[in-house]
Design a protein that fits this description.
10 helices; alpha/beta; 13% strand; binds guanosine-5'-triphosphate; Spore Coat Polysaccharide Biosynthesis Protein SpsA, Chain A; 2 domains; elongated; binds magnesium ion
């Protein structure tokens, strides 16, 4: 079995060497271990450091294309290089590389197709209580919407089987963290997790300026991907809210109509109720249309899976 350990790099000259040095040289059940970096338009010496440490695959984006696009590049390279397992870790040395050995075990033993490193965020001393709360809330939301049981949904420390890489089609540009989990849930790709600890922070996040930006960007991806795979659930839930509002206002109108005023007054309630009903109908229609589009997407993805299987097949 061949394992490729991939490190996305955006100006990581200071920490890349320490990540590379700690990567395990041998893992039971793995016959080959190779390393890969995706340099996403770095302006520092990231590439020189990678070359100095004999990284096997160096992919260079000449300008910064963000992590979602980088994901597509490294999956393509890994599949082309016959990787059976792909591991992702961070270039800032956030995740101790010693855990890679445990991370790949469920894939080697065919117990799972994706394995996540659970940082146990509630125990991280440098996280503020607010950050811990939001990390917990966020993971709960991702778990609920994706139908998975991942405890730490934004952990970048992950292992993927070749099969899962063939099935995942990331379309978000900014990040792949949520996209991959939502797809794994709806495509019934088995996810497992192991407990890990993290190293002390070496710098601030390059991906997000602050927690709010993180929440906003990833939430918009979450909703879009959820709509892609579960359009009926999303649009019918929104329609239900407007149905309830319509019912409340029509009841108000009827109450006054029957008990007090007769037909002349409270006509505004009737108009409001009618408006809510029309909005609800629009959302139902959107749900049906989006559902048809999503069915087509499923067929296209099935086709893509077979095409990728042929394209990335080992030549004898
Ligand atoms: N391809 C690519 N990688 C990036 C980009 N920005 C950051 N990275 C890399 O993605 C990994 C995660 O970025 P970090 O800045 O550590 O962000 P984070 O891990 O979410 O934040 P912390 O938890 O604070 O470390 C690192 O290896 C970065 O070098 C980018 O624009 N493109
Ligand atoms: Mg990091």
């Amino acid at each position: 079995m061949k394992l490729i350990i991939q490190i996305p790099c955006y100006n990581e000259e200071k920490t890349l060497a320490s990540v590379l040095k700690e990567i395990p040289k041998k893992i039971e059940g793995i016959s080959e271990i190779e390393t890969m970096i995706i340099d996403d338009g770095s302006s520092d010496r990231t590439i020189d450091i990678a070359k100095k440490h004999k990284v096997n695959h160096i992919v260079k984006h000449i300008w910064n294309k963000w992590l979602g696009n980088a994901f597509r590049s490294w999956v393509h390279k890994a599949l082309k290089s016959w990787a059976d397992i792909l591991v992702n870790t961070d270039g800032d040395n956030q995740y101790p590389s010693k855990y890679i050995t445990n991370l790949v075990q469920p894939i080697i033993s065919k117990q799972a197709d994706i394995v996540m490193g659970d940082r146990q965020t509630a125990t991280i001393s440098h996280f503020s209580p607010l950050k811990k709360f939001f990390q917990w809330l966020w993971s709960l939301m991702v778990r609920t919407l994706s139908g998975t049981n991942v405890p730490d949904s934004v952990s970048w420390f992950r292992a993927y089987s070749r099969e899962s890489l063939l099935k995942l089609n990331v379309t978000s540009d900014f990040s792949y963290a949520v996209d991959t989990l939502m797809q794994a849930g709806s495509k019934k790709i088995k996810i497992d997790h192991i407990y890990i600890t993290t190293n002390k922070p070496t710098r601030k996040s390059r991906l997000f300026k602050n927690m709010w930006q993180h929440m906003f960007k990833t939430f918009s991806i979450l909703i879009r991907v959820f709509a892609m795979y579960h359009p009926m659930k999303l649009f019918f839930s929104i329609a239900a809210v407007f149905w309830i509002l319509a019912i409340i206002w029509i009841m108000r109108f009827l109450y006054f109509y029957i008990t007090i005023d007769g037909p002349t007054w409270h006509i505004q309630s009737l108009i409001l109720s009618w408006t809510f009903l029309m909005i609800a109908t629009i959302f139902v229609a959107l749900g049906v249309i989006w559902d048809l589009i999503s069915k087509n997407r499923k067929l296209i993805e099935d086709d893509l899976y077979l095409t990728k299987k042929m394209y990335y097949k080992k030549k004898k």
